[in-house]
Design brief:
mainly alpha, about 210 residues
Length: about 210
């Protein structure tokens, strides 16, 4: 079984993708905060579309302008094709123009959903997340289900998610040393559930590290 550390060494995150990927976003806040963030976000998007379409120089079919907008978005943060498409639509560009730009970016190797998915999963492993948690994160990031399933399955077969669960168990064991056994187990199961680990793996880890 490959360790999480070995997995990350063998699949390094390149081109600053980890730093860009780990930027905080609205998912870090509670439900009320998410609603507020979504409201501000959509209001901002609507404003940008209005400004773009009200500008007499704006052409929603302008390939070069759409491409430059895509470059700026990708420079700010790595994105999936679906997320990039949504952002370009928000800016007021037409579907056909966006399709042409995305096709060109894929040809240039600047947009690659599988590579992006692998970067997201590497981040998830580093955060001691399980296969279910990684799959949910990929879905949230707009990665196609077929790509998400393939990447998650490959990483799971290498044992990286299981090792992530063991690392989570070791961290929890250190932090809860001296506490009541039930408290230690409850905290571990709670953390494991939030991070998307399967119950069988959590049970094995708890029995070995915390159930003594």
């Amino acid at each position: 079984m490959i360790s999480a550390q070995d997995f990350l060494k063998q699949h390094p995150i390149s081109d600053g993708m980890e730093e860009r990927y780990t930027k905080p976003d609205s998912s870090a806040v509670g439900d009320a905060g998410q609603s507020a963030c979504r409201g501000v976000k959509y209001a901002g998007h609507a404003s940008r579309v209005r400004h773009a379409t009200d500008n007499e120089d704006f052409d929603p079919r302008n390939f070069d302008a759409c491409r430059e907008a895509a470059f700026r978005l990708l420079d700010a943060s790595a994105r999936s094709t679906q997320t990039l498409r949504r952002r370009l639509l928000d800016k007021g560009y037409e579907d056909r123009t966006i399709d042409d730009v995305i096709e060109r970016l894929i040809e240039l190797g600047l947009l690659n959903d599988e590579a992006y998915a692998r970067s997201v999963v590497r981040y998830c492993v580093n955060r001691m997340m399980g296969s279910r948690g990684a799959a949910m994160e990929l879905r949230r990031k707009g990665v196609a289900d077929s790509i998400a399933r393939r990447v998650v399955s490959e990483v799971a077969a290498q044992g990286a998610f299981e090792e992530a669960a063991w690392e989570l168990g070791r961290v929890t064991a250190r932090k809860t040393r001296g506490l009541d056994r039930q408290v230690r187990l409850r905290r571990f199961w709670s953390a494991g559930g939030r991070k998307g680990h399967d119950a069988d793996t959590l049970r094995r880890v708890a029995h070995e590290l915390l159930d003594g």
